[in-house]
Design brief:
The chain is mostly helical and 1012 residues long. It contains 46 helices and 14 strands. A hairpin with a 2-residue loop joins strand 13 and strand 14.
Length: 1012
Amino acid sequence: MDGVPDGVPRVPEQRRPDSSSKPPKPVESLKPPTSPKAAASAEPVASTTLRFSVLGPVRASRGDEPITTGSPQQRALLAALLLREGRTATAAELIDALWGEEPPSQALAALRTYASRLRKVLDPGVLVSESGGYAVRGLADGALDLAVAQDLATGAEKARSAGDLCHARETLRRALALWDGETLAGVPGPHAEAQRVRLEEWRLQLLESRLDMDLEQGCHAEAVSELTALTADHPLRERLRELLMLALYRSGRQAEALAVYADTRRLLADELGVDPRPGLSDLQQRILQADPGLAEPSSPSPEPASVPVRPAQLPAKVPDFTGRAAFVRDLGEILTAAEGRVMAVSALAGIGGVGKTTLAVHVAHQARSAFPDGQLYVDLQGAGARSAEPETVLGSFLRALGTADSAIPDSLEERAALYRSVLAGRRVLVLLDNARDAAQIRPLLPGTDGCAALITSRVRMVDLAGAHLIDLDVMSPDEALALFTKIVGEERVASERKAALDVVAACGFLPLAIRIAASRLAARRTWTVSVLAAKLADERRRLDELQAGDLAVKATFELGYGQLEPAQARAFRLLGLADGPDMSLPAAAAVLDLPVEDTEDLLESLVDTSLLESAAPGRYRFHDLVRLYARACAERDELPPSERASAVSRLLDFYLASATAVYAIERPGDRLVDHLEPASCPGLHFENRHAAQDWLYAEAVCLLACVRQCAGQPETLPRAIDLLWAAHDLSESGANSREYETTAEALLGAARQFGLARAEARALTTLVNAHHVGGRFARADQEAEQAILLAQEADDLFTVCWASNARGIIALYQNRHEDGEQHLSRAIEHFRALGNSPGEAAALCNLSRIHLATGRTQSAVALAQQGIAIYDAMGNSMRGANARYALGLALTQSGELGSAADRLQEALEVFRDSRQRLWEGMSLFRLAELDLAARRPAQAASNAEMALTVLRGIGGEWRRGNVLTVLGRALSGIGQTGRAQVCWQEAAGIYEELGSPEAAEVRALLSPVQAA
């Protein structure tokens, strides 16, 4: 950043306290510790187990056993000697260090007593007497935490000088982690006080250096929370204010950044009578001018754990790659020319099956040495109905380059900008396979000197500026025969050369067709080449006409399909019916109604024919064109035709049974599992809650795709709706919330179309949850009301329970407390009638919040405690966290802040562990409210900042307005009134747009500020 000195701060020099009666002693610098041999004049007994700490309370230990270091003065003596790093301190110097200007009359005797006691508890030869003084000698490397911190700081400085910001940043984190509270805590004497000041200054400098690197790495949102707390603790430290301004600006919060400057200028004028330093003023001007140099991090490096991430995502090369010599040479020259010059973009176009991906992967592997910083790869699924979204791909690329999930922005434009920033100064090759069009890939281009992009697509990208376009045609006859020979074997082809030429000609010289035909022949040793040629001549003489479109690919697939065994062909047809992007082995076994072991054998045999791809161990996928062909085969060949619907139904049942198992393991005792549609296919068994959650989130995209696919048939729609209900954790995770909502809307439309009242009620209930998570309370309440009426008509009391519960909590948010209490009371009555104790606990906790909002604090506490008791009795930890959340709110209002903080912290830990981003963010928000009540505005600001970060993209604008209001109160409490005003103005705008009554409250907060 401009105006920031390079490098990591060195430890400040030691200085004696000023004294008018004694001359100052020489300055002692704290350099990294020398070796024991260099530090000692004698050969003391080396201590390999002693450890000492001064960056906190002065402590000593031998291995894991603590050593008693005695009285405060005795610890002061030990600290003074440790800080001299083996050099001798005279008795006079030590007396001055311990007692300053007024030592006791028996100071020398006391000093000797302290030294004698320390010598007894330390190893022999560690505390030595010489020249009328004392020294600590013979310590092992790393025995003193301060020396370790100095070594780490030196290492961080070297790494930063070498441009390795990731390593430097991690090393500084380790150095700062050595501090354990106040340096030399509880140690008396002027020397200890001087050292405390010196080492605290060094710690802050190291912290500022690490935060500066955080911003260079693009971690702006995370840094805001920490910097807010630090500026509250150190309000006059301008460097921290400068970093906070930059972090806010890069987080899109320009008004708050400028408010920080205004707060700082006013504070400095009031406290010190000075203006901000030039660096701070310059930064303000650059923010006002929207200086492009501030918009992106100055360093492109990603954020790995300890070393720069160099992705190597290229798929494996095809070992029998043949021909294309001119293309390989030309593309290689274009790509390698990008090194040190300009970005190279090459786009390969051609019909499906012509070998675009094979050629691109081969060329990319050959060019790897020119791109030492890594290679990225993605299949953009451009030929499918749901091609990959650029923002999704950018998120995957940024993670592969080491960017933390929390640092990845939401919008396409911001992700593209961060992606280009991360790649700046690096040489990375990006292979964009199977692109839909130029619009899809423009955000994915590096745009950086030294990088290159290689693109494959079925369309010519004439509108892609600066691209080198290549139209890839079919192979020449010689190349086609060479490819066929490599796969089948020289011996078999040499004796039947004419038949081999007939085969490749019948394949239209299309590489994918040749590879499939040759692979089937190679797998059947009893066949001759003539047999294969005869088959092609009889069945596919139309290939000569199919060089310009998809029929060439279809004909090639027909060849491979015709050679499959009956079980293989059935698997190929049925697996192609599923809409998901890929499929797990257990899901495939459900579709085929076969044991997992037999399914795996079939799928691996299909992989061998290239009709199926192994996306990862245990996961399989079709090429998009192969999937279309497989479905055409199913429509044509699957008998009876009802088996197609049965296969999809079995997949739905597998997901329903597995999601039900996830729900049951996460919510022990919840009766929802007894009220779902029965599944004919068994699901998975999970060992623990974490394994269940891992499965649910890994299968989210495929699961939701199956739900949407099954919405079109009245026979499968009720099960699809129940599957969505069982998987409703996806709506609260943030990652799948939007897709969950659109799926629920599709199910609702289908239920209304088919006139299924019970299904419509349940679809409405899932949609209510989605709108509640999104903060759209009015719409959620309307849908919950409809759900109750339909569920009563269908005699579905279970849905009535949950819809009533939802109406109760929504009424709370809308300040309709009487209505909310009525809804929740009915929900509790119905849950009890059904024997659904967890549902009863949920409604009790929500009723607790109604009581709290209406001033009945004691009953609110009691209701929440009832909910906790029910959840705990059933071992329901995740929903028990919701109950502890409710109890924390009630205890906060009753003034029991310590207990409230404990309950909210317990809830927070469970929500984090369960990946419930909505409730994690809300727990942080409530902790911020509690901190305000406890008059801890700095901690409140930190928690509110974290809540904003966690709730990004989930929770809706109303909740964001609540967090901003609390953040403004916290900032006002630490004197940052300018930032507070910006937060309140944004909150007021949100409330007014939503028509929320909170707008008046926030405007009242703004009035005194505006008047001032």
